[in-house]
Design goal:
Layout (H helix, E strand, L loop, with lengths): L8 H19 L5 H19 L4 H8 L7 H8 L1 E6 L11 E8 L2 E8 L5 H6 L7 H16 L4 E7 L6 H5 L2 H12 L6 E10 H5 L6 E5 L3 E3 L3 H9 L5 H7 L4 H6 L5 E3 L10 H19 L4 H13 L13
Parallel strand pairs: 3-4, 4-5, 5-6, 5-7, 6-8
Antiparallel strand pairs: 1-2, 2-3
Length: 323
């Protein structure tokens, strides 16, 4: 099913016109290639104009685009010889959390990522990208295993948040995430994390304590979803757009606040328009990071990671008299 976001409608209308003209051109002797090129030029202009001026709420919508590449898509496009591992060795397996080993740009890596699922049954299987405690425990099990064999770690973040269901809470959701936060500061191999869609709250942080944290150009990263924020502040989830404007959730603001390191560029119009180009950009950034981080001593790596997160937010604190 073709899904069009409101701000994408002018683009899709032109693309439909191009499609119709191409079909007509193939069935007649008339040469309308100039008309087709003129429309394509308009599409290219609109893509650049619209996507360079997205507001926070539009970015939220784009990060959730039904066709946006998920963790499993990037694994298929950029991780060679991937072997998935299952189970947390305490309770069960969590299909929302994908973990395994493979190669990125020739470098052996452990891969951990949250998967939302695509079709209805897959979304149910993946719990819509909301990991349970067993997912976070599986993730840290694999990451500690990677450390034992001196294998660097790559994580893909794409979640509306950790699952808040009764069963998850009974099995220690908060404890599982807290344990990951603590233990990831002691995992003595390079860790690179990429927010590829949504990054929300502790559900994202549970696998995103890393030496390098990056965001895709049209991803979002925040302490809470706009809908939940609006429900808490104003008891009205319909004010989500207003909440999005206040959450500082886009990559530019996150980089300014030193929450992330780099913004990975996406193809014009978003990663869903050219997943191969998007995967290539991520792979190159990861390879660059691992080449640098692998040169550091383990003690330097852990201290740098600690200081990175310890100093977050310092630039927003003003001394008396500064304001």
């Amino acid at each position: 099913m073709d899904v069009t976001l409101d701000f994408e409608k002018p683009i899709h209308e032109l693309e439909n016109q191009i499609k119709e003209l191409k079909e007509a051109n193939s069935k007649s002797d008339l040469d309308i290639s100039k008309e087709i090129k003129a429309l394509q030029d308009k599409v290219d202009f609109l893509l650049k104009e619209i996507y360079e001026n997205l507001d926070p709420w539009e970015r939220v919508q784009l990060s959730r685009h039904p066709k946006r590449p998920h963790t499993i898509d990037y694994i298929n496009h950029m991780v060679e010889d991937f072997h998935e591992l299952h189970g947390d060795r305490y309770y069960s397996d969590d299909a929302a959390m994908i973990c395994g080993f493979g190669y990125i740009e020739g470098q052996k890596v452990a891969v951990v990522g949250i998967e939302k699922g695509r079709k209805t049954q897959d979304k149910i299987k993946r719990n819509f990208g909301m990991a349970r405690p067993e997912g976070y425990r599986k993730a840290i099990r694999i990451m500690k295993m990677a450390a034992q064999f001196n294998i660097p770690i790559v994580t893909f973040v794409d979640t509306p948040g950790a699952y808040p269901g009764i069963g998850a809470e009974e099995r220690g959701q908060a404890q599982a995430i807290a344990a990951n936060l603590e233990e990831l500061f002691a995992v003595d191999v390079p860790i690179v994390s990429v927010v590829i869609g949504e990054g929300r709250s502790g559900g994202a942080l549970g696998i995103a304590i890393a030496d390098k944290v990056h965001m895709m150009e049209y991803s979002v990263y925040s302490v809470i979803s706009p809908e939940s924020c609006a429900s808490i502040l104003w008891s009205d989830p319909k004010r989500a757009e207003q909440a999005a404007n206040s959450l500082k959730l886009d990559p530019n603001q996150a980089k300014e606040l030193k929450i992330i390191d780099e913004i990975i560029p996406e193809p014009v119009g978003g990663a869903h328009r050219d997943i191969e180009a998007a995967a290539k950009a991520i792979g190159e950034q990861i390879a660059k990071d691992l080449a640098h981080l692998s040169q550091l001593k383990k003690e330097e790596l852990l201290e740098m990671r600690y200081q990175k997160f310890r100093n977050m937010g310092n630039q927003t604190i003003h001394k008396e008299g500064d304001v």
